[in-house]
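The instructor's notes for this session suggest beginning with a concrete chain rather than abstract definitions. Hand out the sequence below and ask the class to guess, before any prediction is shown, which regions might be ordered.
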Amino acid sequence: MTRPSVVARFAICGLAATALLSGCVGAKESGDATDPSANADAKDVTLVISANDVKGGKNAAEAAWIEDEVIPAFVAQQKAKGVTAKVTFNGAGVEDEQYKTKLELNLRTGSGSDVFAADGIWLGELAAAGYVKPLDDVVGDAAKSWDGWDQISEAVQANLSFKDQRYGIPNGTDGRVLYVNKTLFAKAGLPADWQPTSWDEVLEAGRALKKLPGVTPIQVNAGVPMGEATTAQGFLPLLAGTGAPLYDEAKGTWQGATPGVTSVLEFYKAVYGEGLGDPRMQQDKAGRDQSFAEFAQNKIGILAEGDYFWRSVICPSEEDCGATSMKNRDEVVGWAKIPAETPGAGVEGQDFVSVSGGAGWMLSPKTKYPQQAWELMALMSSKEMQEKLSESQIRVSARADVNAETLKNDPLLSFISEEVLPITTYRPSDEAYNEVSLAIQQATADVVSGTAPQEAAATYAKSLTEAVGADHVAGG
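After discussion, reveal the predicted structure:
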């Protein structure tokens, strides 16, 4: 099955595209070739930043940081060099897909912002369509020699890299771990400092927790209602623990009914087939929220989740986290790295694995001021600016030096920064990912409902073939 190109898909936008583009600023000629030296000596520079942020609304802290910290600092920096810079922030506050659609339309025509925010998962689609280019092509030597790269691990840089080339600078990231309820662990005779070294040890702990009345031993997201949480929080970390990623970028192939995929589905079968997980939660649209509530109520022993859960779901403050807040979180909640299937069986021969996400800053290849736009993006990603952002928004920065300072009083986020980011992986940057993810969700749903793992894997491989074509499926 041949998938329509990204360009072809956008050709049908018609009048909608015209409407979206009518408000864009800084238009450039779409046919201009990339020239890193263009206007490098300009004394008057006009730049536009765009992000899905707006003061008083979505991502308000980041919007305020851009307007109140970044732009004044950049203008002053350029003034010291004898350059008059005018920087405009084109903020939005819409659904991510709506922001992405407008971004792609602007990039296609060469209209819009010079520096823009983009989710790392969008990169493959943008690059394949030619809407973005490697930083080395757009900026040249300045991007190669930036000292900030030394503070961003290769694993984190991968979130805005495609085919071994950097396309942007990550702005922040996260990581998945296994959360544990230490109170329940103590009742089950399990250690508070539990760190499993294999899937079998996770299942063994689940079996011990099963003896406690009213407790769901293990919650690992599954099923279609859980959506992307099934893929990112459950399936992909487990698959990384079998030795190979979902997508082989060099070969352009996806794992079909491979031994790794089947092993992951067998793990799901063990969890839900043995009654270690609650299958009803995986079939409910509110299932993930229910899992959050039950963990906060000391009803779940082990939960696979990202650091968002710690920061925004079970934080001690009811004002910040609502009904799922845990006043005694810091005493009751522990965490562990996600083990590979067996020691050394993970990607790159790792004993432990994780999956991360995150967005970052990229440059339009049509910018009239590539060097100045890069200087703006580099400033946004500097230690000073990233620390200012963290002052109003506790988060895991892409920079190790920033995390060392801003996260030192938060044990879980420090753990993510120091122990998880060096071993993490990212979701594939490919335009077919959403279809593949849906097929994965269905495969886990099938297993939770009683389908044999091998049969679920075969059905998944068939759906995968329909989505990406037989030539792009490895292992059946």
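Then share the key points. The radius of gyration is 23 Å. The CA atoms of residues 408 and 414 lie 6 Å apart.
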